[in-house]
From TrEMBL:
It comes from Geomicrobium sediminis. The active site is at residue 47. It catalyses: NAD(+) + ATP = ADP + NADP(+) + H(+). Belongs to the NAD kinase family. The gene is nadK. Its main location: cytoplasm. One of its GO terms (molecular function) is NAD+ kinase activity. The lineage of its organism: Bacteria, Bacillati, Bacillota, Bacilli, Bacillales. This is NAD kinase. Gene3D superfamilies: Probable inorganic polyphosphate/atp-NAD kinase, domain 1, Probable inorganic polyphosphate/atp-NAD kinase, domain 2.
Length: 266
């Protein structure tokens, strides 16, 4: 049985061309494109394109793995250059590859309407703001109220998402081997009345964080590149997911090297 693959593209001409090249190459090696049940997903574009590929296939994470080709700047998820496309095709077709697993964030939104909830999976992060005014919410950690947050919002990120929005908020960069999530503040109000911890917090597996809104406003949430507006929220629960995302690894490209090449330069 030949391996089934899917190729996704950012949609610009360059990405489409590279995607087509990869498709042709894989077909020549008798691999079959299968958009529904691929064992490997090749995303061509940027990190945003890989986020989309992840969400397209997130219901089958145990059966598929991802690899990203960047047609713009070096990405964290998209770390192959277009010139390597043919090499990548041969790797995929000919060599058994290693798989690395990165932790994900599970977000459960519960509504005041009895029994109603939504579950989301994030590869980068979940952010919570309101559509107008400050976010006012209790932050519970492991069932205990930790603080009352008042400010622009909160960002709860995965380790591989720590280099994205989280970094812009002054959060730490976490190595994806740490099964954890990070809570970073967006402009918290700190004075004699309102007090938050101020520092980003890193929580391990099984330490659930619960955000409980204290005012009745619409919540503006994001899960990776998706944005949702929700009313009537009782709580937003975040924890390290039991599920992992799997990346195909054909050569070493250590995380800290990607951090250096992305943010410091070569
Ligand atoms: P976008 O506006 O194109 O993304 C913003 C930038 O974040 C892009 O340069 C994107 O890379 C990069 N990026 C995505 N995931 C990353 C990661 N894990 N590590 C380092 N950089 C990463 O929108 P998008 O491409 O759909 O990506 C959605 C993400 O944008 C969100 O998950 C959030 O993390 C991020 N974001 C950041 C800020 C901020 O830094 N102030 C604000 C809002 C959203 P590509 O160009 O390769 O796609
Ligand atoms: Mn993008």
């Amino acid at each position: 049985m030949n391996m089934k693959y899917d190729v996704t593209s950012r949609g610009d001409d360059t990405s489409n061309e590279i995607a087509e090249l990869i498709r042709k190459g894989l077909n020549e090696h008798q691999l079959q494109q299968d958009e529904q049940e691929p064992e490997i997903v090749i995303s061509v574009g940027g990190d945003g394109t890989l986020l989309e590929a992840f969400h397209k296939h997130k219901h089958r994470l145990q059966h598929t793995c991802f690899v990203g080709v960047h047609t713009g700047h070096l990405g964290f998820y998209a770390d192959w250059i277009p010139d390597e496309a043919e090499k990548l095709v041969i790797h995929i077709a000919k060599t058994p590859f290693q798989v690395v697993e990165y932790p994900l964030l599970e977000v459960t939104v519960r509504y005041h309407r009895a029994g109603s909830s939504d579950r989301h999976l994030a590869l980068n992060e979940c952010t919570v703001k309101t559509t107008e005014g400050s976010l006012v919410c209790n932050v519970e950690i492991k069932g205990e109220v930790f603080e009352t947050f008042r400010g622009d919002g909160l960002c709860i990120s995965t380790p591989s998402g720590s280099t994205a929005y989280n970094k812009a908020l002054g959060g730490a960069i976490l190595h994806p081997s740490l099964a954890s999530m990070q809570i970073a503040e967006m402009a918290s109000i700190n004075n004699r009345v309102y007090r938050t911890i101020g520092s980003p917090l890193v929580l391990p597996e099984h330490h659930t964080c619960l955000l409980k809104p204290l005012n009745d406003v619409s919540m503006q949430m994001t899960i990776d590149h998706y944005s949702l507006v929700n009313k009537d929220i009782e709580s937003i629960q975040c924890r390290v997911s039991d599920e992992y995302v799997r990346f195909a690894r054909f050569r070493p490209f250590p995380f800290w090297k990607r951090v250096k090449e992305s943010f410091i330069g070569e």
